């Protein structure tokens, strides 16, 4: 969605160093400019149409996306709803580790966000281990080493 937001603001530049796959966004980002920009860099836009969107009968990216949406709605929406997984993850991260970053430098900002993502992932793994009753061998080894150190 950040890619699409940048297109609307005229900030989009693609340097070709990374590949774009599916781009999902909500209806607020539906525009010919956004759809064309995503397709121009090799992406596939998944932006649901508004109720007042008009069908286009040409071979433009907008027309192709509209016809896919109209004729294969279930498939289109399955791609689009992957967006909810991302939104849920961001919400979980903001709840668990906060939504503010305080670093001043660009490198510091990136490192702070990556540390928050790592902390979130560790919490998710621990919760899954507790919920499913999974005991990892490294946990048993650490516990055994701690007991030996205490009783030595």
Description:
- The protein has about 150 residues and is mainly alpha-helical.
- It has 2 domains: about 1-80, no CATH class; about 100-150.
- Helix content is about 60%, strand content about 5%.
- The chain has helices spanning about 1-10, 30-40, 60-70, 75-80, 80-95, 105-130, 135-150, and strands spanning about 20-25, 45.
- The longest helix is centred in the C-terminal third of the chain and has 27 residues, at about 105-130.
- The chain is elongated.
Question: Which helices and strands appear, and what pairs or packs with what?
Answer:
Layout: H1 2-8, E1 22-24, H2 32-40, E2 44-46, H3 61-71, H4 73-80, H5 82-97, H6 106-132, H7 137-151
Parallel strand pairs: 1-2
Largest sheet: 2 strands, parallel
Radius of gyration: 22 Å
Mean pLDDT: 82
Q: H/E order of the elements?
A: HEHEHHHHH
Unreliable runs: 1-5
* Count of discrete domains: 2
How many distinct beta strands? 2
Q: State the secondary-structure class.
A: mainly alpha
Strand content: under 5%
| Strands ordered across the widest β-sheet | 1-2
The percentage helix is 55-70%
Terminus-to-terminus distance: 57 Å
Indicate the overall shape.
elongated
